[in-house]
Every structure is written in C-alpha cells, then in structure tokens.
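Operator note (shift B, R.M.): manual run for Carboxylesterase requested after the automated queue skipped it. Running by hand, logging everything below so the morning shift can see what happened. Input copied straight from the record, untouched. If output looks odd, do not overwrite the archive copy; leave it for review.
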Amino acid sequence: MEYFHRYAQAFDYEGGAEGCLLIHGFTGTPAHMRLLGESLHKKGYRVKGILLKGHGTKIEDMEKVTWQDWLQDAVAGYEALRKTCRKVYVIGLSMGGVLTLLLAEQYPVDKVVPIAAPVKIYDRKAYGAPLLKYFQRFRKWGGSGEGPTAEEFKDYKLGYDGFSVEALCHLLKLMKLGEKNLHQIQCPTLIIQSKTDETVKPVSAQIIYDKIRAPQKEILWLERSKHVCTIGPERELIHERIQEFLRR
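Run finished. Output pasted below as returned.
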C-alpha cells in the first residue's frame, strides 16, 4: 500500500497497562491524532493510532469501503489494546468521534472522548448525498480550511482535499447509528467541541451530553479552534484536559 506521507500511516506507541485508541476523521489521517498520541505516550500510556480503510492513500480508495469497514477498524483497534491493557480509553476526532461513541455503546470501554463528533453539520447539501452520488463521484471541501499552519506542524495537517460522495453516504449512516443509541453510554465521557467549528454544529456536543447516561460527563468548549482542533491553536489545552480526565 502506498501512503501519500509517512505520517498518514498508523502508529503504535508501547506503554503501560492503560491504553488509548486514537481514531481520525472522515478524509483525515492518523497525522491529525499524532501530536495527541505523542503527548499521551509521554505520560506512560500505550497509544494506538489507527488508519481507517480508504484513507491515507488516494481519494479513489474511499469508494471501495463502507461504514461497516470503518467500524470494524475501530473494533479491531479496541480489541488489540484490550488484549494487553488493563484499561482502554477511546478518543476520536470527527467521524472518529462517532466511532468512539459506537464503541462505548457496544463494548466495555473505560472512558470515551469524542472530539468534534458530528450529530448536526452545517453542509445541507451533504444530506443529499444518497441522490448526488449518481451524478457526482467526488466533491472538494469548501470553506477556508484550517488556516496557516506553523512550519513545525505542517506534517500533521494531512488529509484528502475532497471526498467521495459515496463514502459520504456511509458517514451519514454512522452519524445516525451513533446518535440512536447514545443512551447506552454509561462510562465517563469527555466531549470536546469548538464553538467556531466550521463543519460540525456546536449543538452536537450538547445533544451527546444530554442523551448519554454516564454519571460522569462534561464538555470542554474550545473558543478559537476550527474543526480539526487537534492540530489547532488550542491543541495543548486539549492534551492537558484529556490527560486530567484520564487520570481521575
């Protein structure tokens, strides 16, 4: 398999008896989660950053996969950590956040951290994907993106500049599945959401908070970040709050 950058590949950092599964988002790569992974590894955690099928190579590969493939990737990552770790925490960005919610609904996850997980999105045209896919194979991402990236972090800003419309249909399916059974989540939950997210409506975080049944739950509201907040200006705050949450 040919990756478009070395950081687009999965990563696995050995550590102690507590493991963290990191899951990137739709059209993204493990590069978006690598800074967080490095931060957690320095604190002694075993960290596994997975690559979802159809990502990190070429955009045409997205047409070959389904939501079931992505969920199975997440399950496989969770089960791999569960074999060696006493506790397993799942942390995901965007679609990866939805996958962490699905894992927490179906498996004995110890703690879950959905970051910018979509329940409601701004792009109304996205909901027409089931029809649009018959007329258009790919779409470019709109908006202004994440803005300038410091030279030292440019290798972490890696993902496709567009997406498969067919694959978007599968993302919409995952979003529905994730929201449907939120009431099944009872493990401690830290929800992270930026108020200035240009992709996911911030109300998504409140919906997740209100519907899960976890006795320990909280929302970390970001003030200055775009959607891919794990490589944004508040990344260090994210690292600190996640570490604090996992230590409790």
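Quick read of the result: The radius of gyration is 17 Å. The chain has seven helices and nine strands.
Leaving this for review. - R.M.
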